[in-house]
Amino acid sequence: MRKLLFNVHLYVALVSGIFVLILGLTGAIIAFEPEIDHVLHWKLSYVTPQGIPKPLTELGEAVGKAFPGEQPGGYLVPGAPNLSYGVATKRGLVAVNPYTAEILGVREGGRDFLSYLHQLHLRLLIGNRADTGKTIVSWAGVAMLLVLISGLSLWWPAKRIRIQTKATGRRFWFDIHNASGAFSFLFLLVLTFTGLMIGFEEKTVPMFYSLTGSQPSHPPQRIPPPPPGAKPISPDQAMGVARGALPGSQPFQINIPGPKGAYQIRSRFPEDLTPGGRSRVIVDQYSGQVLFAEGSRTAPAGARLVIANRAIHTGDIFGIPSKTAMCLACLLAVVQLASGLMMWLKRVRR
Asked: Which helix (DSSP H) or strand (DSSP E) does residue 211 occupy?
């Protein structure tokens, strides 16, 4: 049985090793994706707080003056007072100082380094209708689960976590492999399990709703037609409506709808540390009526399980401490891969 477990552990790791390397390195980086993004674009990201931010409409007008013919398609309002606002246009996301309406620059459309890295982690940069890349990553997660379980079974009898300072050759790599595996096992198991829940979401999301006896909520399919001569409310007013619809939440993103559309607003509660938020509000642009509101606190139980699973996987669940733990676990997975490969190469040579 031990020989069987060893062979499963070895050969599954060898076959899936390249995917473990990709997922480990990319996962370690994108755990801090927003923070890294701000550093990489610091001239467009950071401002000096100077009182109360200007209304969104005024920021939109400033963008229109700076780029004639450009109409705001939406606004991005970060929660920190030292971060710039974003105004979406056809040419890209315009960074604006919310206190002075100064145009800081434009992040043009298209993917940057972090976006490509994110897609590499999610689907290996393979984008097609069949979502082949996501399927490969999901099954790589299954392989990782087998490696973790077989590795625990092999480690358990001796429970070795000590690294001998004078050890050399295969023994040194053996100690590194055992120690890194022991310290990272629980975190890697959580990362792998939650990743599988995301990878096979066509099956797992209905399962979450079934287990909780809940049903997904559905936004309205039809927006009420505008009354004759009605004028739309401003984005600032719509943000205020969204804030009232989900008390305690902070709206951070809003679109500018067409004549027959509605304001789509994303919000987050203080405990919701994920960058994309998990709450949304739809507001009629003419009457200001709330057409749909779903907060992460009051969403159906199945949706809350989906939200929690993603927050755990990304490390957002407890903010910087949990993101740091997941980042280190990803790096230790790479250490395990490297040490296991060195042991195997030395064994083959011997």
From this structure: helix 201-212
Structure confidence at residue 110 (pLDDT): 67
> Cβ distance 257 to 264 under 8 Å?
yes
If you average pLDDT over residues 75-79, what whole number do you get? 94
DSSP code string of 129-179: TT-HHHHHHHHHHHHHHHHHHHHHHHHTTT------TT--HHHHHHHHHHH
User: Residue 349: in which H helix or E strand, if any?
Assistant: helix 320-349
CB atoms within 10 A of CB 110: 7
Q: What spatial distance separates the first Cα and last Cα of the chain, rounded to whole Å? A: 24
Q: In 3-state terms, what secondary structure has residue 268?
A: strand
Give residue limits of the domains in the chain: 2-34+114-213+317-349
User: Does pLDDT of 248 surpass 70?
Assistant: yes
CA triplet 146, 150, 155: central angle to 5 degrees?
145
Tens of pLDDT, residue by residue over 25-45, are: 999 999 999 999 999 999 999
pLDDT, average across residues 191-216: 97
